[in-house]
Amino acid sequence: MQAAVMYGGVVVKGSVNSNSTSLAVCFSRAQKGRNTKQLSSSIDFSNTNCQLLSSSSSCMPHRTSCFGLRLDSFSSMGTELTRSSLFRSRPIVKALASGGGGGGEGDVEEGRPIKSVEDVNYVVPPQQQQGKASTGTVFPFVGVACLGAILFGYHLGVVNGSLEYLAKDLGIVENTTLQGWVVSTLLAGATVGSFTGGSLADKFGRTRTFQLDAIPLTIGALLCATAQSVHTMIIGRLLAGIGIGISSAIVPLYISEISPTEIRGALGSINQLFICIGILLALVAGLPLAGNPIWWRTMFGISAVPAVLLALGMAFSPESPRWLFQQGKFSEAEKSIKTLNGKERVADVMTDLSVGSQGSAEPEAGWFDLFSSRYWKVVSVGVALFFFQQMAGINAVVYYSTAVFRSAGIESDVAASALVGASNVFGTTIASSLMDRQGRKSLLITSFFGMAASMLLLSLSFTWKALAPYSGTLAVLGTVCYVLSFSLGAGPVPALLLPEIFASRIRAKAVALSLGMHWAANFVIGLYFLSFVNKFGISSVYLGFSGICLSAVLYIAANVVETKGRSLEEIERALNPTI
């Protein structure tokens, strides 16, 4: 193949033998008003430093940087070449096959600054010079984002211990309907927030959306803390719900987009870990209630503190490089990558982003695009994962755990909740260490299978007469095993996997749609669980949950792809070959 490129006024011409490891080239420096000086050389690709070997006695051998050439890239016409320092010095050059595409020897495209996606559409990753990610710099920004996850868990758990006391204070002890509204309004708000979060993240960026999210979180907390009527309380819970709904969508999205590939699984599972920590914090915050009945106001009020810290922290956190790249803000994307991964990774990550955008100069997707034949298959996987996660009965198990523990002689509600919460935190911690070693798919299958077995044990412990002497112990064992199994995969993996499998142009909205299914299923379980228990019995309901878990195993085995160790752009190209 004949090739010609121009870089900084230097014309490079040559030919490539696909069966060799060298590229024969001829350099000529063309300058106005001066004679052209040529020298013939070859680049040896067997050396990672790209030794430039002179074939002329007048040319001294010397080293030069690789132009981003890879032997396997010469099999197609119109191969694009770029220096590994492409994004630092802004040139881009083109090699044209002499026999096709209208290009011939001598066809040269002048190097030009990168100003649009078209300028970087065909960059080949320089494999020889990939740097190692500086992973430590990512942790503080992941920690700031996880304040949203803590608030997610805290607002879910704070009402459990405080409902009795706030009902007395607001005069709704006898009105269980209004008490139900205080609890469920949060879920209704979260459903709205999860859909809103995707659009906001696409329009304003990830960090700005976090800052906007702090507004309903802060106002909602303060309204709940100062409420003098149940109506004010419900409005506060609605706003807090909108806030945690937005958080549920953008926390995993932001973490997945800023995390290095090699630790993205571990960092992604931290989201679920901090949700569990938030629930435990709500439990701890309720301990003074017995001695101070109006302490419930403080419990709601202190949640405004992490909301404010989230807004302040995001003011100093880098924006997602992928979002910046999609917006055409290339210099800002470089700065973000440098902050997150170190300057040695800027060229590699930017090159990867440009390859991921090949042939895709499309605008951000609309909501209806998610249901198109192009995207629905992968979007349906995300929706199904959250459907199975909630319909498998996690909230029902947690809700009924107090009664289960009492049957085993554990009378303290706090002790029962603490044991369940500790099991969740422990399992999620283990999952974070396994995520990048075992893979997402295997953890999901193992998790749902363990949940199915645990649900079967719970069902049998309530009905099988032969197990009657051990029913209490077996029920506790089944509950703890179920929560552990859930936290190993079904809990943390969906929120991590979804931003990985969705194409960049639909990522934010598709995550939001899937989270909408999460909150809708959560709401349905909370609304109808007790009715089903009263009609069919707890044993039959648990047996039904076991069946759903087994269905999830079959679905995951057939439809979910493994994403371990692959960049977001590699996953996107694999799932969307037309991109």
From TrEMBL:
Gene Ontology, cellular component aspect: membrane
Q: What's the protein name?
A: Plastidic glucose transporter 4-like isoform X1
Tell whether Membrane is among the UniProt keywords.
yes
Classify the source by domain of life.
Eukaryota
Instruction: Tell me the keywords, alphabetical order.
Output: Membrane, Transmembrane, Transmembrane helix, Transport
One example of the protein's molecular function in GO is: carbohydrate:proton symporter activity
Which residues are in the Major facilitator superfamily (MFS) profile domain? 141-564
Stored PROSITE patterns: MFS, SUGAR_TRANSPORT_2
Entry keyword Transmembrane: yes
**Membrane topology, record value:** Multi-pass membrane protein
TM spans, by residue?
Answer: 138-158, 178-198, 234-255, 267-288, 294-316, 378-402, 442-462, 474-498, 510-530, 536-558
User: Whose protein is this, by species?
Assistant: Populus euphratica (Euphrates poplar)
The family assignment reads:
Belongs to the major facilitator superfamily. Sugar transporter (TC 2.A.1.1) family.
Q: Where in the cell is it found?
A: Membrane
